[in-house]
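#lab-general

N.A. 3:47 PM
ok so I finally got the sequence cleaned up, no stray characters, all 83 residues accounted for. can someone with queue access submit it? mine expired

B.Y. 3:52 PM
send it over

N.A. 3:53 PM
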Amino acid sequence: MRTYLFGTGILTAITSGIALLRDIRDGQPFTWRTGLAWLSWAITLTLAIGAIVDVRRARRGSIVPGDSPVSGKERKLAARFRR
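B.Y. 4:20 PM
back already:
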């Protein structure tokens, strides 16, 4: 579990989310750029969680979608996980 929680994608999303929350707390006005920053943060967090799910499925021997970075490596990841 800690492998997933301390992945670089999740850590990056958390730190950028903290920066966005500080801007709101400091009273910065909500502009279209702020909206785009929040949208970008949500997309980054979603992609990081999706990557974690794909790696977990691959390690358990399930087939992952073809657009995943671990697609085609399911057997290798499953063999490494079983050791």
